[in-house]
Structure formats: C-alpha cells, structure tokens
Design goal:
- With 591 residues, the chain is an alpha+beta fold.
- It has 20 helices and 19 strands.
- The strands form four sheets. The chain has a seven-stranded antiparallel beta sheet with strand order 1-18-17-13-12-9-8. A seven-stranded antiparallel beta sheet has the order 7-4-3-11-10-2-19, covered by helices on one side.
- The longest helix has 21 residues.
- The radius of gyration is 22 Å and the shape is globular.
- The chain starts with a helix and ends with a strand.
Amino acid sequence: MIESRSARRVRRALVIGLCAAPCAAAAVTPPPLTAQTTRYDFPFDWPFRGRQRPAVTASRGMVVSTSGLASDVGAEILRRGGNAVDAAVATAFALAVVHPEAGNIGGGGFLIARLASGEIAALDFRERAPITATRDMFLDASGAVNKTSLTGHLAAGVPGSVAGLHAAWQRYGSLPWETILGPAIELAERGFLVDERFHRNLAQAKERLLQFPSTVEGFLTSGEPPAIGATFRQRDLAETLRLIAQQGPDAFYRGRIADLIVQEMRRGGGIIRHDDLARYEAKWRDPIVFDYRGYRVLSAPPPSSGGVTLAVILKILEGYDLARLGWHTPESIHLFVEAFRRAFADRNYYLGDPDYVDMPIAGLTSDAYAEELRTTISRNRASNSEDVSRVLPVGEGMHTTHLSVVDSAGNAVALSTTLNSFYGSGVVVAAAGFFLNNEMDDFSARPGAPNQYGLVQGEANAIEPGKRMLSAMTPSVVLDPAGRLFLVAGTPGGGTIITQMAQILTNVIDYRMDLRTAVDAPRFHHQLFPDEIRYERGGLDGLTIGALSSMGHRLRESEEYLGDVNAILILPDGTRLGAADERRGGEAIGA
C-alpha cells in the first residue's frame, strides 16, 4: 500500500496519540439545554420548511421508530410494566413484520443500553460470513467485483437478529419472552393495512424481487405489490415468530427454521449451512465512550465503525467554535467535510471485526490525535481525498432501521438493525416468510473497490470465514455534563449514518436546536470517496454552494433524502421529547 506524505504524518501522530495526554478542547462547554433553544430558518427550497410536527412529549416512557404500528407495540409493552429493553425487543420484532424492507429477523444489528443504575453495555449481533466463504468469492475471472454480493442467496451472511434480541432480553428483560413476541405474531397473522409507503417501496423493488419465487409468493400478488388499503397478512412469518416465542433462538439456529434456511440456500446456490447457524452467537462488547464539549457519548464498537468514526469526527470539530461560525455556513460545512474526510480515511484502513483485526482505537479516539489531524486542515481550501486516504481506490442504498426507547425509570436503549439493501438479498426463505440480508457486500470484496455505498475499504475488512463485516450503524446514547441521560438516537443510511449522527449531535449541542428542528434540518455527507459533498435536495442555497465550490469542493445534490433519524431528548426536568424523522414518516409514542 502507498501512503501520501500527509497520511504518513497523521499515522505518526496516531502512534503518538496512543501515549499522549489528552489536549484541552478549544471551545467551552455549552450551557445545559432547555426547552428554549435557538431558532433557525432553513433554505427557502427545503421541502420540510414549516411542516415540522412538534416533538411528542411524555413524562414517563417514549418509543420512537420508523413505524407508528411498531412504536405503538413498544409503548404498550412499557404500559404493561416492561422496561426499555423489553420495549425495544418487542418493537424490533414488530418492525420485522410491518417494515420488511429493513426491519428483520434475517439480518443483524447493534444495541447500546444505558441503565438508570449507570451500567452501560453494547451488544453486537452483526451477521457473519459463512464458514465456506472465501476472500475472492465475489470476483469474476478478470478480478472485478460481480453482482452476486448484492442480490441472491450467495449475498447473505449468517443472520444475527434473533440471537441478539434474545440475548438483550435474557440479560435485561423483565416480561416473559412470549409476551414480548405476542404483538408481532398478531400483526403478522391478522395483518395490517397497506399504506402508501409500504406499497411504494415494494413497487420500487419489484423487478428485483420478481427473480425469486418465494418472494413473489409472500409479497406480490400477480406480480404486483398489494394495493393501498388492502390488509396484508404473513402467515408463514407468524408461524416463524410463534416458534421463536415457544423455543427461543434454538428454533431459528437449530430447529425447523434453520432447516428452512438451509433448504433455501441449497435451492439458490447459497452457502449458509447448519453449522453456520448453530455456531452463531451475539457478543457483548464495551461501547465506544468519548466526550464532546462535556457531553459523554456512548456508541457502537467494532465491527461497527460507527462509534470510532463518530468520535474522530467530533474530536476534530471540538477544536472549532462551531456556534460562532454558524450553522450551514460555508466555513462550518467546510470544516465538517474535512473532519468527515479524515475520519473515513481511518475507518476504511483500520477498522474491522475485533476478533480478526487489531485496531488502535485508543489512539484514534484521543484528543491528541484529533489535534494533529486539525493541523492538516486548511481553513479555506478543500483537501484532496487521494492525499488523505490510506486505501487507494481502484477503478471500478441505505436500508437499515433504528429505534430509540426510554422508560419511566430512565433506562435507555438505542437499537439499529439492517438487511443492508432494501429487502436485503431479495430472497425470502420459503415457508418461513422473512427476507435474508445481503450483508456480504459490506466486506471489502476487493480491497480498494467501492461497495454499493461507494465505501472504499481495505484489508482489515476483507472476507474471511466466520468474520463479521464492517458496519456503519451508530446507535448512540448521550449523557449531559452532569451525567444525566440526555439523548438517544440513531438512523439508517449506509455510510451516511455516521455523518448524520455528527450533525444531529452538533445541531443540539453546538447550535442549540430543539429536537424537532435538529432532526428535520437539511443534512450533507462526505465519505472520502467519491470525493464530493452530497447534499439533500433543497438543503443548500446557491450562495453556499458557490462559496464551497470556490474552496475546491465538488458538490452533488442527492436524489434521496439522507436517513431516518429516530431520537429522544430528555430535558433537565425529566420530560421526554420524541421525534421521528419527517423524511420517512415514523412516529414517536409516549407511554
């Protein structure tokens, strides 16, 4: 691998950062947040301007997810005496029914918990490569990456969601397991009304889904998605969930459901076998913990890149007075982008499955390293990504879901799950009723070649048997300077997850936005490669675009809105404020 001069200098700084004492941040800690916050005017063309729903207020529990049906399930669990973990697990299973494009039992995810006692925990239930996976399994004869990592049976990693949700409940849950799954079983069996979003997402994916008979049978009628207003029932999925409720994860990993998965794999040329399923286990890990302007952030550890990369970004930005520079000014956007650029360079080079790769996490998240990275940033000129990158690119979707829960005792859960692409691999397990993921594409199928999200990753994330692929999921819990629960948040969005979370946190902490404004504000993204700022349609005005261009930045208006943030903010008096993103129309429900 060839490194640029600036990259070598930063790598030396990283080694120094492992031993150096933390450096003081340049900016002071903002005062505690109250209900009275700074107001912002969005660009005139911003489509959510003036349309924001007020944040939902509750004095006890709060559940926020991308689906009102699923949020209601979680809120009802809280009303029945369940705690935040009970509610999060029940909401996640409900999302597997009503949000099949990303809610899942055929994928994986990460959970961050902060209990009222002060205990913190991170649960990794990321998918794994099958035992017979090989490094070059997605390369054609010429060495180019083919499409089998995206669609079809070979794209699926060993699912972790069922094991992870059960492990979370087993450690912290209070209600019976069968009670937790009951609402999801009922939703699958009795059905729910198809809304415009459910219909539209299936219609957009129809051509891909038509390739698989089991998918057509479960989700399409005469080759078309169910009509808006129709009742959609999933009896196979109801039976699958009933078996999980009765037998626990053994039903999925060793019993009838495992048999159905393996049979589906053999029909379609996939490589997941009984041994892969039987060997799967969710893993409790230490969260990534770092401070930003006096606030303590708890986030997802590797094999999620989210927590480490978010820490690098915010540690760099901590050295600038963002409030004085202003929200979405050319100067502040430039500094955000330069921080994003450097953080993704480290992400792509260093991070991977901790059971396979040694990572200098203490150095990467140190104040000393952030200070050295700031010395490489010009205040008025864009960097060149090839000069910053540690992985040289070679020539060659965003469909996770997040839920946030806080209960009356102050226990908090941030939970993100994913299938990777919308509807994952496109394959439904026949007679089981759920989609399988296409997470194998999150590996570096060929180090230096971009995956479907354009992420150019290195050797640390190369395919190995049993390895967990790198993720960008960033479920996070934030404590205020007094150590009180402050914010619970997360979002889907592929590589944009991390940059979205940086903007959500700075919107609230630096720019003093109320939660509703912070979630609905326009967002932008840069991930090193492609070397461009991607901004939401209508999210930047012409003067700002011109000023950034004059600094040497390339900009592209996104065809899609970025993410689907679901967040809860706790005011000093204990009031819970819940906000679901206007971009996709989820719902916050108090309990």
